[in-house]
Amino acid sequence: MAYDENLADKVRESLVHLPDVYEKAMFGGLCFMVDGKMCICVRNTELMCRVGTDEAETALERNGARQMVHGGRTMKGYVYVEDTGHTKPSDFNYWINACLKYNKVAKSSKK
Question: Does residue 111 fall inside a structural domain?
């Protein structure tokens, strides 16, 4: 499991105010689960953001963003963001807020 510990700490700090957050190793990185649902992950120096299909098109237009492909499958509603797309505080906050917004309506995965 490879992920940037500083970036993971930054995500932790941004989610600390929420009551139901835990971390889980997934996708070769560290995922942050909010209310029992995958919200945002850190893999290497990238963010993997679950923004939902409605926001994905807009999100993909942002600097450093690309469609998530996992195991040869395009993952709709998921976006990878390389470090150039989340280093500025305003960009980082956009991704956190987009993930939290979608998390409110996202369905939990089957256990």
Answer: no
